[in-house]
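> tool_call: predict_assembly(chains=two)
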Amino acid sequence: MKREEDSARLLVIRLRDGKLIRSWPLPAADTLEFESAYGKLAVYVVGIALHVMNLEDGRDVALMFPQQVGETHARLVAGGLFYSHGRAYAARTGQLGFIPRSRLVELDAVKAREWRQPLHIPRLSATGPLSDAGQRGGFA
Amino acid sequence: MSAERVFELAPHLTERDREIALALYDQQLGHVEPDADAGRAVAPRPSRVAELAVPVEKLEADQTRAFFSSGGLRVWSAQTGRMRAQRGDCENLVDLAIAGGRVAWVCEEQFLSSCAATLKTATLAQSRPVDVVKLKYCELSVAARGSLVVYSTGRKLWRLEGSRKRLVRIEPMVSRPLSVDGDRVLLERRSGSLEVVTAAGALIRVLALRAVPRTLSLPETA
């Protein structure tokens, strides 16, 4: 996740060649946190809202939880999504849950928003090996 | 709706009323609808839910288990629903990780003019924690997944084999592991550039981005 001034983008980089293959716009918000990625899915939090994004096509859904307040956390694993949030008007004010991957895929099938198309994708070029025998990539 | 907007709609409020309203507003601040601008809002169907006395402060997960801090360290199985307390609470928990049956976490202690950090580890079978390393400075961070647990002590990247440490690599500058996948480790250098190395210490790639990324991860297929 990259933030520049008032905008933020989620970048997907192919490790094989260091090429930037996707760049998805994210909501401009002060409280924007990338949480986790696994396979083609990524999760991030805007305010308290947990978003699941398909990294291939940019489709994005916000997950609604009853009585949700406070900090939200999430981690994607092979089998699904662990998440946590606070609960208002409850004696036990924390909640931890797990959504299986099959149910995440159902959520992922929602219609894409038109504006959520890949925009300017800068070219990431290899600029030669470093002194420690690695490769360096940078936006051209 | 912002606090200012609330006051605009209720200009008759006295100063005292406003204080009370603001306090109530602060308590309910998080109770808002998810941001619809960035996608459609849907109600998920979790297969398992655990109610906790206090909200989660830090969360990590691997396979079917979550390792988290919520008034103490705990491990929760999404498969069985079993919750287990992990011994080894600390004054200031700064990082935690879980890889299969092993958990690890970093505690910091702040003194008047210094800071100390300790990496602790335990297994799900043996919850008594073991101190792996203690530093007199606070540059410890840990990441894990699958069977790999790595941590950095500034410029040095280490691998945890059981409760023993093994040096993986010495970086040219202070770096910290952000994410682990298979035998690959994603490191963030202090300069903001990213580096992917193998668990054996071989450098796969360095990525220099124009803007410093806020947060990163190493998804399986990226």
